[in-house]
Amino acid sequence: MGMKIEVRCFATLGKFTPADGLLDLPEGAAVAAAMAALGVPPEEVKIIFVNGKAVPPETALADGDRLGLFPAVGGG
């Protein structure tokens, strides 16, 4: 049985957001597996949010979770 998570990739990572905003994953998959399924290079992700809380990439996801991926922000 699989699960669906809602995905938003921000700024320079926006191109990795699924067209419908949803990703199908195996039950219990971690954030890192979601990033791999989306093709997001881990080194480009600075902050990961699941349901509004900052988490590490090894965090397990559950059906209906909201995943947000943010890149490092450059400034000048």
Helix count, DSSP H or I runs of 4 or more residues: 1
Q: Tell me the number of strands.
A: 5
Largest sheet: 5 strands, mixed
Kindly report the spatial arrangement of strands forming the biggest sheet: 2-1-5-3-4
CATH-level-4 superfamily name: Beta-grasp domain
Q: How many angstroms separate the termini?
A: 47 Å
Shape: globular
Structural class: mainly beta
Going by CATH, the architecture would be Roll
Q: Which ranges are low-confidence, i.e. pLDDT below 50, for 5 or more consecutive residues?
A: none
Number of domains: 1
Order of helices and strands: EEHEEE
CATH fold title: Ubiquitin-like (UB roll)
* CATH top level class name: Alpha Beta
Using only CA atoms, what is the Rg?
Answer: 12 Å
**Which percent range describes the beta-strand content?**
35-45%
Helix content: 10-25%
How confident is the prediction overall: mean pLDDT? 95
What does this structure look like?
Pfam families: ThiS (PF02597). It comes from Alkalidesulfovibrio alkalitolerans DSM 16529. This is Thiamine S protein. The protein is mainly beta and 76 residues long. The protein has one domain (2-71): Beta-grasp domain (Ubiquitin-like (UB roll)). 11% of the residues lie in helices and 36% in strands. It is built from one helix and five strands, in the order ββαβββ. It has one helix at 31-38; strands spanning 2-9, 22-26, 45-50, 53-54, 66-71. It has a five-stranded mixed β-sheet, covered by helices on one side. The longest helix is centred in the middle third of the chain and has 8 residues, at 31-38. The chain is globular, with a radius of gyration of 12 Å. The model has no long low-confidence stretch (mean pLDDT 95).
